[in-house]
Amino acid sequence: MPAAPDSAPPRWCDLHLHSNASDGTDEPADLPRLCKAAGLSAFALTDHDTVAGVAACAAAAKKQKIDFVPGIELSVDPDVDGTGEPAGTLHLLGLFIDPGHPWLGEITQALTRARAERNPEIIRKLSGLGVRIAYDEVLDLAGPGTTVGRPHIAQVLVKKGYVKSVHEAFAKYIGSGGAAYARRDLMTAKEAIKGVHAAGGLALLAHPVQLRLPDEDRPGEALAHVVGRLKAQGLDGLETRHSDHAPADVARFEALADRLNLLTTGGSDYHGSRKSIQLGHAAVPRGVYERLRDEARRRWGPGRVVAGRKP
Ligand code: AMP
Ligand code: FE
Ligand code: FE
Ligand code: ZN
Fold this sequence. Notes:
Blueprint: E1 12-17, H1 31-37, E2 40-45, H2 54-64, E3 67-76, E4 90-95, H3 102-128, H4 135-142, H5 150-159, H6 166-174, H7 189-198, E5 202-205, H8 221-232, E6 237-242, H9 247-259, E7 263-267, E8 284-285, H10 286-300, H11 302-307
Parallel strand pairs: 1-2, 2-3, 5-6, 6-7
Antiparallel strand pairs: 1-8, 3-4, 4-5
The structure holds adenosine monophosphate, fe (iii) ion (FE) (2 copies) and zinc ion.
């Protein structure tokens, strides 16, 4: 069999990755090299509530000659129609955003402030349970300029021997049913979608299984309802392939996207050494990247997408 020509890009992409600008462990500038080594030809950086790693990652991607998608993963209120809060989390991916757009500057600052209030509250609740860690230990572990989150707190709990694993830290203390859980004020999905569009990005629902809707393994009418609401608010698509999705999930999410005429995306949700998921784990064909790129170009023009900023 003849070898593929050098010019043919590898067939896979990964459109959901974290760096140490949030709760991943890799430097943003190292990700392009790691992605190439993992056999990917395109990837997106989608740190939680921050675009701080995008510029360094974009520059390194250019040098490595790998296609790069500037992105963000925003935590939003899962109660999309005001009928009471579902158990799970709602994360929206903004792909092809302009990281210098003023809305992103404002929203990421507000989200950082909300975390700066929520995180110490978790520390106080832990202390009330006899689990004593200092917030400074968490900040030191996260490093400067990082979106500080519960995974960092979990790691300190492991380090200090209060729990055996990050999983146990979430289950026992800091997960949504945990004894030291503290919620933070979240923006609405409608606001997030509008902002992502203003910043020149496509808005996609991340890992639908994490919504933890009641009929997860039945026909999926609860999901169809939520996604229908989000679509009415401007949602562009669904993350159908994800490390948390079983093949049957991928199939039902693809069918739903098809039915509602939504785009699809996919990614591993790689967090470096903080989680066991490998780059490229979700096996997303490169065509998924190309369809999203083409849609972004159609809406905002080729210069916008290639350069990562407005012409
Ligand atoms: P935060 O944004 O600070 O509320 O923390 C959310 C982060 O915690 C996300 O990166 C999730 O992937 C992670 N997370 C949520 N639940 C768990 C869990 N049970 N085990 C490990 N990580 C989790
Ligand atoms: Fe995370
Ligand atoms: Fe997420
Ligand atoms: Zn993620």
